[in-house]
Amino acid sequence: MGDTPIDKAAKAIGHAAGTVAKAVGAIEGAVEKRLDKFGNAVVDGVRHLEERLGAPHLLRRDDAGRSPAQFTLYLRIGRGGFSQSKTGVYVPEKLSPRGKVNLILYLHGNKLRVVNAKDTIEEIWGKDAGEKTGKLVFPLREDLNESGKQFILIAPTLGAQDQGIGEIGTNLDFYLEQVMLGLVAYGGFPDLPVGDIIIAGHSGAGGRMLALASGTNSYKNNIKEIWGFDTLLKGTEGDWRSWAVGHSSQTKVYVYYWAYGDASLLLAKDTAGVDSVYVMKADSKAIAKADSGEPHDFILKRHWRERLDNIGSPSQSDIKGREESRAEAKKRN
After folding, report:
1. Residues 279, 172 share a domain
2. The model scores a pTM over 0.85
3. CB-based contacts of 325: which residues, under 8 Å, 6+ apart?
4. For a Cys-Cys bond, which of 72, 155, 277, 288 suits 106, CB 3.0-4.6 Å?
5. Do 188 and 69 fall into the same domain?
6. Tens digits of per-residue pLDDT, 141-186?
């Protein structure tokens, strides 16, 4: 007996489906080959740039959509025994470098509570931690972009505590030069000199951030401001005082405190006659209203934009906060 009409129809459908699947497979194979070829060409191009310019290795570039506008580069920087596994370099939307490139170098704190031990800077500055506000814990890029300030943000991935700060410090000139080469190679920047530098740190970064600031020969006159967000760990006040006084003619030092009040107030007392030093109690009430958890963890979120808005000159709030801290320090002694 021959096939029924239904059997014939089923065979026809099966044959057609097989033909389509074969065609789709062929198309997918061709696309994969073309993508592989394109991907290899991109990789070869990047390697050529790295070799020709001596640029750092590009891990990834995130444009608007994956990054706050304008873009973020993730770089691996190293030479000899020095290796910085993942540095984020953020270029805000309104940046228009004219003759120089201004930099903020940010050193994250210990990886506790809101930050996991294995987090890189990519996770840290994207951390939301289930906050009630819906804003990030460390809105470093977002606030810089909204401020309109003409600065690029550089943020290395450090260890669970302060591992890596010392190594960057002893290689600081090379490290910053690599960042600048990365901007030329992967960001389309012209080859411009470094302008003003701000070094900022949170929490545990305070133990070594001033030693890092002292690690440069090429850019020692470029460091215009130091921002410490609850950074005066026990035993570090003397280092902060010596550095702040020694660089008072060119660098303003701003310190917000909450958890490390004793050392911070001692700094306020010992620099009472130094106009370039501002020790201020953090606005913990504003933090507590917005976020659950330790106020210390959210100090940077509360005051980062404030510092951005007042780059170059202290605000009246800064002056008032400094005088209040000096008065409190005097009362304690």
Report:
1. yes
2. no
3. 257, 264, 265, 268, 279, 280, 281
4. 155
5. yes
6. 999 999 999 999 999 988 766 666 778 888 899 999 999 999 999 9
